[in-house]
Task: structure prediction
Amino acid sequence: MDINGKIMLITGASSGIGAATARSAAQAGAKVVLLARTQSKLENIADSIRKDGGEAHVYPVDLTVAEAVTEVVKQVKAEVGLPDIIFNNAGAGKWLHAQETEPADAVSMMASPYFAAFFVTRAFLPDMLKRNSGYIVNMTSAASRLVWPGATAYIAARWAMHGFTEALRADLNGTGIRVMLVSFAKVASSYWENNPGSEERLPKAQSMIRVLTPEEAAAAIISGVKRNKCEVMAPFMLRIVFALNCFFPSITRRIMKSRK
Result:
């Protein structure tokens, strides 16, 4: 896909991978639509894109509320147009053992990323099907294929994103709409500062895998879209760990133990 002139909607666009992907997409000529809760943060990202000659539109919204998503989708379609690419990137979550996790936190972690991605996709999908074109990109993590102790509800939510993506791909088989799943290992971001104690629970396997910058993650995503890929995972060492898990699960269980 040539994304020059295309409309790319990005959720969780106020920081980290979402913000970096917005900048990368705009540099490639896409019109970016930025969604997240905090308007001031979105405006900062949009201003930096516009200063570089790009086009950015800001829509503050709580994506975990279905009614709010319905309304913002109407606004986007009326004011910018139907997106060619949807990047469901919004997500949060604390790394905690099951017994440490409050029920409200478990609900919140499933609400974003999974319900947010479902609500956004469902709201745009009828028009995308009528047009018979588009690209839906869903963000998850290594936790969508691997497990380790100390991040129970977080991991469950990422497995939900993996299942949603595969089921959506089956639904859309034979149409002109493509679906891509994105999985990364550790990415340097403010997440670790905002969730103290989580970094110490990274599995031992992470010590073998290079930490990505948000810009590297964004470059991998944009490259995947341009190349019509159905899955993007990075860095390369993560692929090796996934393969190891398929063929030698007992070894993987040992290296996926928490460092804490």
